[in-house]
């Protein structure tokens, strides 16, 4: 198993920098107790500079989104180069909430390459909006994975994280079963192997996101086969997120 990876995605929270600093300090202290776990925090971009000042070595920072171009006339956008200059190490790419406002598989692929060119790690989100009894959602996942990786050199697969986030389980309280998570972990590995070869496939880190909470994290981690979690709401509560970190600690 690769080193466990636990990522906090704060989305558009909290409301103030003061709150952000308080939560950040709590997460950093929790992460220090478990050096075997890689802990990453993705705050709103407006907080990145201030949080970086006290990041230290226990927590790495991530951006929640990026543009695919390094610079240009793109009002309101942020490039991977800018994110790298701030000291962040990761960028979340293709989150379901971005896809819902029009981001395509092709857009995601371009952002992955832009992130890699900036020597940052893309956290590539994939996931189905619903499951059907015929299993058509597997085809949907395969298309997302194949499109995301087809222009990526095989040598860079080790620098990519896939976050499987079933959309029907995000912020709904519903959670995929351990069997669902394990099945998808094996399926994603199968897809990568089919299209890009086993050696390259085994280099990709695969994590789970979708209503991960303190009371289900340990079971999901132990039996689900994933290498960690992408955590939403629970990452804004220090005690809850600390428990999730503990669940993945060796």
From TrEMBL:
Pathways involved: Carbohydrate biosynthesis; gluconeogenesis; Carbohydrate degradation; glycolysis; D-glyceraldehyde 3-phosphate from glycerone phosphate: step 1/1
Residues binding substrate, per UniProt: 9-11, 171, 211, 232-233
GO biological process: gluconeogenesis; glyceraldehyde-3-phosphate biosynthetic process; glycerol catabolic process; glycolytic process
Pfam short name (any one): TIM
Catalysed reactions listed for this entry: D-glyceraldehyde 3-phosphate = dihydroxyacetone phosphate
One GO term describing the cellular component: cytosol
Enzyme class name: isomerase
Keywords: Cytoplasm, Gluconeogenesis, Glycolysis, Isomerase
EC assignment: 5.3.1.1
Catalytic residues identified in the record: 95, 165
Gene Ontology terms for molecular function: triose-phosphate isomerase activity
UniProt main location, coarse: cytoplasm
Cell location: Cytoplasm
Role of this protein: Involved in the gluconeogenesis. Catalyzes stereospecifically the conversion of dihydroxyacetone phosphate (DHAP) to D-glyceraldehyde-3-phosphate (G3P).
Alphabetized NCBIfam families for the sequence: tim (TIGR00419)
PANTHER family documented for this protein: TRIOSEPHOSPHATE ISOMERASE
Family listed: Belongs to the triosephosphate isomerase family.
Subunit annotation: Homodimer.
Protein name: Triosephosphate isomerase
